[in-house]
Structures are given as structure tokens and as C-alpha cells.
Amino acid sequence: MTIATVGTIAWAIMVICWYVIRYPFERRAKRARVETTRRGAAETMRMLVSFTGLGVLPGLFAVTGFPAFADYSPSTLQVALGMAVAILALVLFRLTHKALGKMWSVSLDLREKHKLVTSGIYRRVRHPMYTAFWSMALAQALLVPNVVAGLSGLVGFGTLFFLRVGPEEKMMESAFGEDYRLYCERTARIIPGVY
Q: For the chain, percent helix, then strand, then coil, each to nearest 5?
């Protein structure tokens, strides 16, 4: 088995683990009443671009080898680093879901009786879910031995992040007012002490 194959398999395992972590929260969220939503055509497009970069293109590569012109041979160190970043991403992803509990939503929604979560991993970072997704996109870039499929996660998720984080924070400020503004003052968006 080549190191390129190991990387692709590690990426697939990361995606499976991501789904296993998310599935129970997704089921529970379908039963919870949404009080406020900012979903719409723009949000659907952002989600589609992100899903294409983090799922469709690398999945297509893993199954068919397309686009073969962008293949390269990764180093063992690169794939090992990708596996470490994937583990970090999954740990962050799990901690985020655990902290949010019933407040979790796949999109820009506020639940009935929604509470501002500032405990657990949210104590220092406002958007640890985005930190987890940035980490997954970086792991994908390191694990998938194809320039197009590997980097598509950074482009796809980056598009979603930069177009969504502003509206999301405005929605939270509108819902929680001064509490959210004070929370923003003492936390970073995605990397403690950096951004």
C-alpha cells in the first residue's frame, strides 16, 4: 500500500468519524423547534460550496481518481501530520457538539428558548465548530494526494466561513445583546489569542 493510499484512507476515516459524531445531534435537531432562522438562498449556496469542497471533490477523487492530472506523491511526514490534524479536528468537533447540546444547529438557526453557550470549549473561542472545520480542511489538504481535491476543502469551507461568520455574529448579537458583545470581547473567533 502506498503512502498516497494511506492518506486517502485516513481522509475517508476522518469523514466517517465526522458523521458518527454529528448524526445524533442532527437527529435531535430535527425534532427541536426553530424560533429564528437566517436560512435562505445565500445560505444554501454557501453550504453547497462548502460541501463540494469538503465532500464531493475529495470523495470523487477517492472513488475514481479524478482529476488524475493533479495527483502527486505525498511524503510520509505529510500524511502523518495530516492524521494528527484530523484527530485534532475530530476532538474539537466532538467537544463543540458536546458543549452546544440542544442548542446545536447545522445552519443559522436559534432554537426555542435558545441559550448563549459560553462554557466548555466556548469559554475561549466563539466559533470552535469553525475551528474544527478549518482543521478538517487542512487535514484534507495534507491527506488527499491531489492538488485539486486536497485543497478544495480549504477553498470550499473558507468561502462558507468568510461569507457566514458576519451574519451569524449579527444574529447572535441581535438575540443576546450586551451578553454577546461582552462574550465577543473576551473570546477569539477561531484561534485563542490570534483571531
A: 75, 5, 20
